[in-house]
Design a protein that fits this description.
158 residues; 6 helices; mainly alpha
Amino acid sequence: MLIIGLVLSVFGIGFFCWVLFILAVYALPFVAGLTAGLAAYHSGAGIPGAITVAIIAGGVTLTIGQIAFATVRSPLIRAAIGLLYAVPAAIAGYNGTLGFAQMGIPSEVWRVAFAVIGAVAVGGTAWARMALFVPPEEGRRIAGGPATHRLAGAARQG
């Protein structure tokens, strides 16, 4: 019975780490949806209406951010949009990792070190998920495409 409890505890902690990681990556849309849902609930929409508003607001926030990140050509504006999503995710990753570290690590220095690693991992993942929606530049060739170097043309000619 003790072994079953230990195994289930490990799987339970792993599940909560996974859920925390997913929610931390989508911190900005989650908070936007939560805020809109609470506002709808307090205005008299009821629980089903508040849940519907929360899902729509979170989805719209994520979609608008991804579209804006993908369509803007300026690297400075793209970086600002990416940071708008990555910084809240990094803060959530730091706090979540610190919470888990406080359960099993007695040293304060090591807790903070693991929390910083968690913040970097979650913030980097949020940034990468935003960057997934960026189309390749028109002048760039995709791997496996025809070569555009001068030497490749010279080699073909003789």
